[in-house]
């Protein structure tokens, strides 16, 4: 699984063979420049989900329900989840596994909308857990996470994201639940893995957690390409007067413009 947030990145992720494209609320940080995911609205998520859906042919598109879109009432949660389906997602993801969340997930499932669970470090709870920290390090917390995973499985989630938990705990949960686990910072024992598009490709220069493997430095490549373009414009090397420019249809037309007596300028070749 990989995140994507717009038409071109969804097309690339899909063409590369990604099985699940998550329109993550991480877009708040990597695309919209917010300090965390809490500012992201349903409208912003839907806007990006539509673009991703248009760029995806093969992968399953999962829309990440943002903060406060599934916290107020069951009715509002189901309506918001339905908006993701209308925007082109085939499923939604919801953070948390406590009892109240299970009821919400059941209500959304009851509206025929598949739900992906997400436990461990749930960034929408950052203020309650006191930061972006490893979860389930101690046995009591780990037991709570196992119970939540089992409850999400029992409620009918089709998969569960495990974020930033010890490898040993992720292995145990993966063994205990009947649905695939998808890890991010949860070690190699999960059934699948997920990364944020901009982290994987080196497009985000904010904090990069230990669990991210950067496969390219696209941000640096973009910077170099743009710097070259600016240099070419400023030095007159771009655009080329022949290959990158349009021309009047014939010398006759040019003469009508410049007059017979004037020397017709030759296109600038640079
Ligand atoms: O928002 C997101 O990108 C996520 C993944 C990191 C799982 O929730």
Question: Can you walk me through this structure?
Answer:
The longest helix has 18 residues. An eight-stranded parallel β-sheet has the order 1-2-3-4-5-6-7-8. The chain is elongated and about 90 Å long. The two termini are 46 Å apart. It has 270 residues and is an alpha/beta fold. It has a single domain, classed as TIM Barrel. Bound molecules: 3-methyl-2-oxobutanoic acid (KIV). The site of 3-methyl-2-oxobutanoic acid has 11 residues, from β6. The site of 3-methyl-2-oxobutanoic acid (KIV) has 11 residues, from β6.
CATH fold label: TIM Barrel
Order of helices and strands: EHEHHEHEHEHHEHEEHHH
Proportion of helical residues: 40-55%
Any idea what the radius of gyration is?
25 Å
Strand order of the largest sheet: 1-2-3-4-5-6-7-8
The number of strands is 8
**Largest β sheet strand count, sense and barrel closure:** 8 strands, parallel
Which overall shape is indicated by the principal axes computed on the Cα atoms?
elongated
Low-confidence runs: none
Instruction: Please report the number of helical segments.
Output: 11
- Tally of structural domains: 1
SS-based class: alpha/beta
The average pLDDT is 95
What CATH architecture would you give?
Answer: Alpha-Beta Barrel
Bound molecules: 3-methyl-2-oxobutanoic acid
Q: Looking at this structure, what is the CATH superfamily?
A: Phosphoenolpyruvate-binding domains
Determine the N-to-C terminus distance.
Answer: 46 Å
Residue fraction in strands: 5-15%
């Amino acid at each position: 699984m990989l995140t994507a947030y717009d038409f071109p990145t969804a097309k690339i992720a899909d063409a590369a063979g990604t099985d699940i494209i998550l329109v993550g609320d991480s877009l708040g940080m990597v695309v919209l420049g917010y300090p965390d995911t809490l500012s992201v609205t349903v409208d912003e998520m839907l806007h990006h989900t539509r673009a991703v859906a248009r760029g995806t042919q093969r992968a399953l598109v999962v829309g990440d329900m943002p903060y406060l879109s599934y916290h107020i009432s069951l009715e509002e949660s189901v309506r918001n989840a339905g908006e993701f389906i209308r925007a082109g997602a085939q499923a939604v993801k919801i953070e948390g596994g406590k009892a109240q969340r299970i009821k919400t997930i059941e209500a959304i499932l009851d509206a025929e909308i598949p739900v992906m669970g997400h436990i461990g470090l749930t960034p929408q709870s950052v203020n309650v857990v006191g930061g972006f920290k490893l979860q389930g390090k101690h046995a009591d917390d780990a037991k709570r996470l196992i119970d939540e995973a089992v409850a999400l499985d029992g409620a009918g989630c089709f998969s569960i994201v495990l974020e930033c938990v010890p490898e040993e705990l992720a292995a145990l949960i993966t063994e205990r639940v009947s649905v695939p686990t998808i890890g991010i910072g949860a070690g190699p024992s999960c059934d699948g893995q997920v990364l944020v598009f901009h982290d994987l490709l080196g497009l985000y220069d904010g904090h990069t957690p230990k669990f991210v493997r950067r496969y390219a430095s696209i941000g640096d490549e973009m910077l170099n390409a743009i710097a070259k373009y600016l240099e070419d414009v400023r030095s007159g090397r771009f655009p080329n007067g022949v290959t990158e420019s349009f021309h009047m249809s014939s010398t006759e037309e040019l003469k009508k413009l410049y007059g017979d007596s004037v020397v017709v300028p030759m296109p600038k070749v640079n």
